[in-house]
Write a sequence for this structure.
């Protein structure tokens, strides 16, 4: 089986529904929306009933474009593991070909990092995925949101909207994270880290 015929499962972490749409915790949804736009297809309900998905190929024209399933789980962040496991089982995707796009407190806003494996660092979505998959050995595209200002509670911070100043540069960050996902599935981890982890 050639490299390009295997499927990647790209999961945008977030909370469903309009109430949460603009929150820092929902950056995974925003990046997956951009990837869906690039793939030229809308999200549709998956037959498991637990996520919305886009299936297609991702990559620049003329390059080997791997098969990719973009997923937006319909569960809340702390229960995302169940839908991810169901999709991984349905599409026969190994954990090493799963990419989780998520917000990261320990990285400054407007910065990101790509890595394979690691802990969950208190992130409920990653914790749920690790628990359901039985491993943390999946890829992560960690989009920085920075730490809350002053003494603001972390939970309140991640479930709040971006500031006006942040919203002006957010589209560039979303675009860059989408580029990183595309690079990861077409060029691999090492080249992607060299390009995007600087």
């Amino acid at each position: 089986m050639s490299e390009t015929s295997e499927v990647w499962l790209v999961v945008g972490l977030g909370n469903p529904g309009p109430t949460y749409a603009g929150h820092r915790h929902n950056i995974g949804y925003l990046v997956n929306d951009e990837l869906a736009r690039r793939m030229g297809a809308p999200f549709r309900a998956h037959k498991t009933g637990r996520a919305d998905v886009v299936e297609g190929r991702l990559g620049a024209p003329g390059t080997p474009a791997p098969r990719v399933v973009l997923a937006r789980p319909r569960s809340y962040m702390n229960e995302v593991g169940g839908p991810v496991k169901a999709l991984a089982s349905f599409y026969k995707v190994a954990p090493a070909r799963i990419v989780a796009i998520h917000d990261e407190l320990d990285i400054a806003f407007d910065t990101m990092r790509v890595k394979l494996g690691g802990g969950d660092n208190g992130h409920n979505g990653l914790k749920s995925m690790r628990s359901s998959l039985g491993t943390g050995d999946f890829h992560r595209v960690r989009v920085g949101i920075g730490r809350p200002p002053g003494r603001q509670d972390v939970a309140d911070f991640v479930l709040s909207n971006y500031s006006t100043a942040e919203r002006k540069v957010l589209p560039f960050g979303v675009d860059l994270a989408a580029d990183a996902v595309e690079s990861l599935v077409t060029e691999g981890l090492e080249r992607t880290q060299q390009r995007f982890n600087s």
Summary: The chain has one domain: 3-196. Residues 3-196 form a domain with the Rossmann fold fold (CATH 3.40.50.1470). Residues 164-187 form the longest helix (24 residues).
